[in-house]
Design a protein that fits this description.
CATH topology: Beta-lactamase
Helix content: 25-40%
Shape: globular
CATH class: Alpha Beta
Order of helices and strands: HEEEHHHHHHEEEHEHHEEEH
Strand order of the largest sheet: 2-1-10-9-8
CATH superfamily: DD-peptidase/beta-lactamase superfamily
Structural class: alpha+beta
Number of strands: 10
CATH architecture: 3-Layer(aba) Sandwich
Largest sheet: 5 strands, antiparallel
Length: about 350
């Protein structure tokens, strides 16, 4: 007797199913190797009830910004502008008399700095100057190196340190070391008014009193002007696919970084602390990984709160891009974790049929 259970025969079917259940209005994906895309596409609409999504439409990457800022940091390291041992106090003089003065670039990139994470500072610090002062006096939760605590505040510091060390804006650094070399025409902070018609909607934000379109979703990033180390980049699935191919290729040859630098960046340095972290990259934790069950332990990447993700599996030689607006119109919507897991499981298996 043959038993048939309902499942998904393709990524497109899975992502269409997620839209039907209103997990998001829009989803785009790309999976491929260093040489080419193996599968990719777009389903849904930029917001509920508007024109169909295209592959050139712009998603708010949210925390997928962090590893791209990490690449900028490592590019500056290669040029002798800073090192992993450079401290907050050395690069940001206004922090010299704080408990963060001795924190290193390494501490911050690994989320082991002790700087508290996920602090809604925008509520009590409504200007850039006030928020930077709030960050200056925000007390450490623990000593550096004691634990992994995911901290956007730490990456705000990293962005400021990169700008101080290089003497130019983070936006300019992103153009110089990531977008420019790869020809990423749609990857940028603060999309202009001319880009608004292709920006994917995020939350109906109570704080702003409107549906957010073309403006960074993260409220702390809004107060800081939209160009920060922890969030703020927008991109299209075509650009992210190009980045994914570059990252796979960079495992063996220089594309954005020397392969030695890149290997240093993606190494799991926090296994003893019970969580897999590289320098600005997430690793694959043994239980409950957001990217499913089949990617290898060597895989690395990052997720974003808005429903985005980028992962690379060196063993498979594949990249995996999934972009959604799962916070539209509310961040309270559920289901994205399951869809992320099934997406990666499908991408790891249906593209590798057994002969």
């Amino acid at each position: 007797m043959t038993v048939t259970t309902r499942g998904f025969t393709s990524i497109e079917e899975l992502l269409g199913w997620g839209r039907e259940r209103e997990v998001y209005s829009a989803a785009a994906w790309s999976v491929g190797t260093a040489e080419r895309e193996l599968t990719g596409g777009a389903v849904g609409t930029r917001s509920w009830g508007v024109a169909p999504l295209t592959r050139t439409d712009l998603f708010d990457l949210a925390s997928v910004t962090k590893p791209l800022v990490g690449i900028v940091i490592m590019a500056l390291l290669e040029r002798g502008v800073l090192t992993l041992s450079s401290t907050v106090g050395e690069l940001l003089p206004s922090f010299q008399d704080t408990d963060k003065s001795d924190l290193t670039v390494r501490d911050l990139m690994l989320h082991t700095s002790g700087v508290p994470g996920q602090v809604p500072m925008y509520r009590s610090h409504p200007t850039r100057e006030a928020m930077l002062e709030g960050l200056r006096i925000l007390p450490l939760r623990r000593r550096p190196g004691e634990a992994v605590e995911y901290t956007s505040q730490g990456f705000i510091l990293l962005g400021l340190m990169a700008e101080s060390a290089a003497g130019v804006s983070l936006s300019a650094l992103m153009d110089e070391y990531v977008s420019g070399p790869l020809g990423l025409e749609s990857t940028r902070f603060r999309p202009g008014e001319e880009d608004r018609d292709r920006c994917v909607a995020t939350e109906d934000c109570r704080w702003r009193g409107r549906v957010v379109v073309g403006e960074v979703h993260d409220e702390n990033a809004v107060v800081l002007g939209g160009v920060t180390g922890h969030a703020g980049l927008f991109s299209s699935v075509d650009d992210m696919a190009r980045l994914g191919r570059a990252l796979v290729a960079n495992l063996d040859r220089r594309v954005l970084l020397h392969p030695v630098t890149f290997a240093t960046m993606i190494e799991n340095r926090t296994a003893a602390l019970g969580e897999a972290r590289g320098l600005a990259w997430q690793g694959i934790d043994p239980d409950g990984s957001p990217v499913g069950d089949l990617l290898s332990p060597e895989a690395f990447g990052h997720t974003g709160f808005t429903g985005t993700s980028l992962f690379v599996d060196p063993r498979l030689g594949r990249y995996f891009v999934l972009l959604t607006n799962r916070v539209h119109p509310s961040r309270e919507r559920t289901g994205i974790r399951h869809i992320r897991q099934v997406f990666h499981n499908l991408a790891a298996t249906t593209l590798n049929p057994t002969p």
